[in-house]
Amino acid sequence: MQVMMDGESISPVECTKEHGWQTAVSKRMSTKSAASGDSAGAGPNTDAASRTFENGNQVKNRVTRASRMPNMPKAHFKIILRPRGGSNISKMGSTKVGKAIIEATGLGLDQMASEIICPNVSQNIMVASTPERENAERYVKIRSIDLGGCNYEINAYEAAPDDTCKGVIRNIDVADGTAELERNIVNPKNPLAQRG
């Protein structure tokens, strides 16, 4: 490989470890060389063989990534629709479930132009995203869907907005009422707090 750069010319002999140079090797290159038998101690108990198996953290990270809610437009209202009674979205077919949800809302095709409905199979939920408050209320009111002549119960609720998080406040004085709690949480010192 020939590289032209401004500066001082050096010979390949000067590009060694003794002179402070390191050879950059990608993971793909080292795996190929280990598989082809170039390394001296390549056997069943070497690092290359152990790298083929996922460790616990990799499995946990893969499951966590798969179970995250899909990216939706931040300005949209997100509604989580979870089947009840042990119904499984992947077995019913996520496309069929999505169509049944649309039918249950009673929205027309012109109203569905900006709607997004997608499954999260690992959590066994459907996520509906809509920019319209009226449509979000229709999704939340769904209690059941009709799928192939069978009626399936659905639990629907609106997810918290993207810029918020939920929390539990412990050790609250029993004497404090709702107004006192709200005044302590939602105040000028905590401008991002919302009334729930």
TrEMBL record:
<feature type="compositionally biased region" description="Low complexity">
    <location>
        <begin position="33"/>
        <end position="43"/>
    </location>
</feature>
<feature type="region of interest" description="Disordered">
    <location>
        <begin position="24"/>
        <end position="62"/>
    </location>
</feature>
<feature type="compositionally biased region" description="Polar residues">
    <location>
        <begin position="47"/>
        <end position="61"/>
    </location>
</feature>
<protein>
    <submittedName>
        <fullName>Uncharacterized protein</fullName>
    </submittedName>
</protein>
